[in-house]
Amino acid sequence: MFNYQTITAYHQQLRLGETTCRDVVQFYVEKIEANNKLNAFVQVYKDEAFLKAEDLDNKRKSGCALKKLHGVVIAIKDVICYKGHSITAASAILKDYIPLYNATAVQLLLDEDAIIIGTCNCDEFAMGSTNEHSVYGKVLNGISNNHVPGGSSGGSAVAVQMDMCMLSLGSDTGGSVRQPADFCGVIGFKPGYGAISRYGLIAYASSFDQIGIFGKNIPDVGLLLEVMSAPDEFDSTMNISLPPVLFIKNNTSDEKTRFCYFTEMMDHPSLDKEIAQALFQTFEELKKAGHAVEPVDLKLVDYIVPAYYVLTTAEASSNLARYDGVRYGHRTQQALKDLTTFYLQNRSEGFGTEVKKRIMLGTFVLSTGYYDAYFNKALQVRKMLVEHMAMVFNKFDVLILPNSPSTAFRIGDNDKDPIAVYLADIFTVFANLTGTPAISLPLYKHSNGLPFGIQLMTNRGDELTLLQISDELMKNSHHPDPVK
Ligand code: GLN
Fold this sequence. Notes:
16 helices; alpha/beta; binds glutamine; 11 strands
């Protein structure tokens, strides 16, 4: 039976004739069908994937060289446009919406002969931390079906966790790739702001959103980044100073790394003691290997989550204004007397509760009278955090953080206390406020049986160091495959 390790090993198997793209697609389609109850996929492009696989098999037989992602089976979150395929942001308001163009990231994958196997379930408009807010229903964690996979890219995380694809794309506005990766025991990588074009990514909060990658090994994740980080004239916020080639080579230098951590985060009262302990243990191991690991202050810790929710809801209220039932989105069947009532009805029927809550909050913080008190204050916090990060990365190479205060929540546990769920974003939103690259690595298993990870961050534009250090940590860890 097909056994996936890395893209390089897979390509070798193809060259030696040990497998074919068709067999591989068959393998993943069977996995998707077997895991149907987890509800990770919204659409599966089975016939199309077989056709593409056969085409690639023929190309190879006729002697064509393999492109970088030849036959690599990838799933995408239901917020990333794939031309001619329905994309809905897991919302009733975008039901039956078919994009007319490919997101740049998707186009770049296709140009390298990747096979898009389907779209993955998520929280509506990528707003959430549990994948319980989707018009398609909740996604279950494959390790324990009583637990959430995390969110908002829960479907993409479970797709990789349960081997329903080789890699998947998510989006990360405040942790939606790293936190589900943490809860599911896979790698979740959010590149720095501007590393991958946002063109064709359905916007939640544009100055925070980034497409991110789920995978099981660092070289694959690095290769996907290399392919998707090509400059794009359709996204003026792209960081063009990013080195074009990021592929992870074997790090042969024995240069020591300067790690640091925020005392206020590692000592945070919400952080599970066992998670803190595991991270401190890793600090000791790093020190033994000759690296420096030092504490740093973060006085602004209590302002991180409020600043994030003020700014992202403000941006969301503006971004989601386009779904009015005229330009985009669901249109009511009711006959209404005026335009305002018509808009109101379209939006009331189309959006779910969480999205409505955030639109209202965002409109409130932007309104005259509250703008200075909330929106401007949050912008000031963001600026101070960016300045603080510049200072930190002047002295250190890598910042270490937890991903989430706890392991995966039980399904339904947070219904009564939505603020508690917002507060649990404390360790992930920081990277989006500051635009830095960040990754979650599945290094640990809790005594409750659930996986959890470590989060690493580097300076903006330094994805290479982040991935290189991650590769070392993954290789040196005795991390168990959480699914087996
Ligand atoms: N949990 C965060 C939120 O609900 C993260 C969302 C995201 O990254 N898309 O805003």
